[in-house]
Design goal:
- The protein has 2 helices and 12 strands.
- By secondary structure, the chain is an alpha+beta fold.
- Strands 1, 3, 6, 9, 10, 11 and 12 form a 7-stranded antiparallel β-sheet that branches.
- Helix 1 runs antiparallel to helix 2.
- It is elongated.
Length: 223
Amino acid sequence: MISSTQQTGSATATNAAAAASAASASTVADTQDRFLKLLVEQMKNQDPLNPMDNAQVTSQMAQLSTVTGIDKLNVTLQALSDSMTSNQSLQAASMIGHGVLVPGNGIDLAKGGAYGGFELAQSVDGVNISIKDKAGALIRNIQLDAQPAGLGHWQWDGLDNNGANVADGSYTFTANAVQAGNKVDVQGLQFGIVNSVSQGKQGVTLSVGQLEGIAISQVKQIL
């Protein structure tokens, strides 16, 4: 079933496309009118001993056709871009309240539990997660076994390396992976709840946890 929000978004996109089409038609008509007036005046005031030949007229008509064609193409592309942005906003709005993984090295411990992720370009023999407090002091090491290429997840039970509970709050982590004793590049992924969606010059962006301005393309996984 289509929601009222989706219907409103579709209507907005349709109206924008219609307005763009009308503006394009008006611009093209004005350009053609000015050109024809100039051409008529030019023909009226041409040198009788050296009149314009057909090739000159044809060349100018071809130039007009090229210019108006480019104008139409630009307006059409802009209308298409506006429509796509509107659709992206509708899709992004459905993510509000859902947890996502995005590039980052932050982790929020709440009620003795936290969640994070990573992305690997290749399979590895193991991944080590190092969790640190705001001062940069090491709190906990979490060693993971062999992992396949792609997205991986890990959880923290809120304990330090001595088995003691640590206070809820914001921490950071680093992920290190090895394959056959060699270090492998790994991208840390931060978990957060999508709070809101914004649309601006940079396109549609999300507010994820404490992160702002996250592009939809940066969302690695919706949980």
